[in-house]
Amino acid sequence: MKYVINGYSPAMLSDYDVLIIQKELSYEEFKALCYGAKSMVGHKDLAKCLGLEYNPGNIIINPDDVCISIFTKGGKLPKHFTELSEIELNNIELRFVCMQFIKN
User: Fold this and answer.
1) Cα 76 vs. chain centroid, distance in angstroms?
2) Could you state, in order of their start, the residue ranges of all structural domains in the chain?
3) Which residues contact 21 (CB under 8 A, 6 or more apart)?
């Protein structure tokens, strides 16, 4: 399964005996990889600005799953933002990482 997430914890793993391969993505790569992925983005404004479904909830990550993770660098997201440019004005950077979970 392929997910788009905005938070990750090892507690989400069904099996802790996995290798995790990570690759940082550009915004364009992120958008391309989102095609066919299930959105589990639990931040309403972030989901809206990125054109993703707002879908708060828990997931269980299994070996062979892929997660496209969105995270911030430089602080928390501003409240009630409507455009990605508002994030940058607050010196916050959105980062994107593809995480692949492989059975060890």
Assistant:
1) 15
2) 2-103
3) 99, 100, 102
pLDDT tens-digit profile of 1-34?
999 999 899 999 999 999 999 999 999 999 999 9
Q: Output the six-digit token pair for 45.
A: 């404004």
In one letter, which amino acid is 37?
Answer: A
Q: State pLDDT tens for residues 43-57.
A: 888 898 899 999 999
The region, left, alpha or beta by phi > 0 then psi within -120 to 50, assigned to residue 81 is beta
CA distance 3 to 13: 13
DSSP reduced 3-state for 101: strand
Task: Report how far residue 34's alpha carbon sits from residue 43's, in angstroms, rounded to the nearest whole number.
Answer: 16
Backbone angles phi, psi at 38, to 5 degrees: -85, 120
CATH number for region 2-103: 3.40.50.11170
